[in-house]
Amino acid sequence: MFSSEFHQAVIRLTAQCNQHQLIRKMADDLVGLGLAEHVEYYEFYDREGNKFPDITEATLHSLTIRNLLDEHDRGRSIRELPQVMPAILAQEPASFDTQDAAGNVRNNMVLPVINREQVVGLIVLRDHNVRGSNLEYIEFFQRIFSNIIALVWSKERDVLTGLFNRQAFEQRFLNILKFATDSRRQNAVISANACLALLDIDHFKKVNDEWGHLIGDEVLLHFSQLLGRSFRYYDLSCRYGGEEFAVVLRGTDLATAVPVLERFRTAVERYEFPKVGQKTVSIGVSEVRPQELLTTVIERADKALYYAKEHGRNQVQAYELITAIDESEAIKSSDGDIELF
What we know:
The chain is an alpha+beta fold.
């Protein structure tokens, strides 16, 4: 009976098309199969916020971990969960015991998720029930999950930069909009506030025309790496298309977002890109508002970006500050059409 249920769980797992759904389904099935009372899934970040860092015994203690199944988790030092370290270094499942508030011993198991001989995540089974023949099932499940999440990761990522591609970004952005709309989230550690920024490398066509597309790709790669180092690991970044990028700053209002984006603009301006030297970036930003369409907030940020490029480039412009109107109103011309600025 367990074998049949397990096979169905694997089939459900292979049907998932994005990382969030895949991780959630994995956790639900492991609990549903009675293999654990609770499941956590951790990713790692280095000191600069880079995901999937090279992990060695020397760098392990400096990592930040974040449970992707807990929307309140903003990350913590791996030193707060030292029991997972042996599984990471050995790249093998490991068990450890903890005590609850009543002094009861709880059995836990760590399953490393491996891609190309590198640990890219951890499944933690709390109060697990892996015994005897079940161990064979769980190790098989671990290998299947590792393979599927590697395929999903490749599908959701831009090949050149490793950032989310536009399709994956928009799917995750919909989840952020839902988060902002849900009034029950008011006490969340990450507040419902968020801002969307669209970023465009200025005069990028000249790079391709004068230096060729290989150097252009180098500029895009360095820009994306600078982007990754400048924003938090729970913010959402993507290559939106060509030389245009997008970032959602979570738990951030406009008053905070603009200075953060200004610091990034300055960092780009001072950066020495391969061959081409210094480049600049124009940025448009708008607040994410509850109960609005994805296209609406993207349109506002895009209008702010257009304004920035039309007024000299190399600047940050916020839609709400440009229009200087109440957030609930639209700018209308005398004939009722929407007027940009």
